[in-house]
Automatic annotation (TrEMBL):
Keywords: Chaperone
SUPFAM superfamilies: TorD-like
UniProt name for this protein: Molecular chaperone TorD
InterPro entries: DMSO/NO3_reduct_chaperone (IPR020945), TorD-like_sf (IPR036411), TorD/DmsD_chaperones (IPR050289)
Keyword field contains Nucleotide-binding: no
Pfam families: Nitrate_red_del (PF02613)
Length: 234
């Protein structure tokens, strides 16, 4: 079982919610102005010791510095890139759906979608966009992980340490079963196709956050083959 302090659990929840917004929501003017004016990429709530997290933040800060001179152009550029990378005019260039990487013929709303949906229902959750967006979309998954972490934190703070381990174990299992197997491939596609430092940074930040949490569960990343595996369970 992972070792997180109370403060770290709170930080993981914030970081994963933030990451979910970055990949799932089309960036609008208010969001971009906030990124620039409020220096949202100055630091990460969790995982800043991971090289990819640090690099991702640096890339996004660099983009913000350039975008400040022409926010209108920056908004249009990012919206076009978000659509091209993650939604697609046809096939997305860096799909955020698990099924794209794991299902035969990249079928959407397949077994990966159903399995993710079952995991949410086990915790009393249901996507309000399930008819139009598959449940195995990365943003939904990141938000679900944030929920599990907050639930673990809530139960721990109530004094029920044994109960608090259940959502943390669910977080570990969900990472292993639904997110880590295709994380490296998604990161690679973002690197290959992103034209802005903003989305290059998003790819690095999300990868680094997941890798940092995986390490707490004893799961290591192999740079050679791009896979994750348990250090102590091989």
């Amino acid at each position: 079982m992972a070792c997180f302090s109370t403060e770290e659990l709170a930080s993981v929840g914030v970081a994963f919610d933030f990451a979910a917004r970055l990949v799932q929501v089309e960036p609008g003017r208010a969001w971009i102005e906030s990124c620039i004016d409020d220096d949202l990429f100055a630091a990460a709530p969790f995982g800043q010791d991971d090289e990819a997290v640090a690099n991702g933040l640096a890339l996004m800060r660099q983009w913000c510095a350039g975008a400040a001179g022409d926010v209108d152009e920056a908004v249009g550029s990012l919206q076009r890139e978000w659509l091209r990378l993650f939604v697609g005019l046809g096939a997305p260039e860096a799909s955020i759906n698990e099924s794209y990487y794991t299902e035969p013929n990249s079928i959407m709303f397949g077994q990966s979608t159903l399995s993710a949906r079952a995991a949410y229902r086990a915790w009393g959750l249901e996507s309000d966009r399930k008819a139009s967006e598959p449940d195995d979309a990365l943003g939904i998954m990141l938000a679900f992980c944030a929920h599990l972490v907050r639930e673990s934190l809530r139960l721990g703070e109530s004094g029920d340490e044994e109960a608090s381990r259940k959502p943390l174990k669910a977080f570990e299992d969900f990472l292993v079963q639904h997110m880590l197997p295709w994380l490296s491939a998604w990161r690679y596609l973002v690197k290959q196709h992103a034209k802005t430092d903003y989305y290059r940074g998003v790819g690095e930040l999300v990868f680094g956050l997941e890798r940092s949490c995986a390490a707490r569960f004893g799961i290591a990343f192999d740079e050679g083959n791009g896979s994750f595996s348990y250090n102590h369970r091989l």
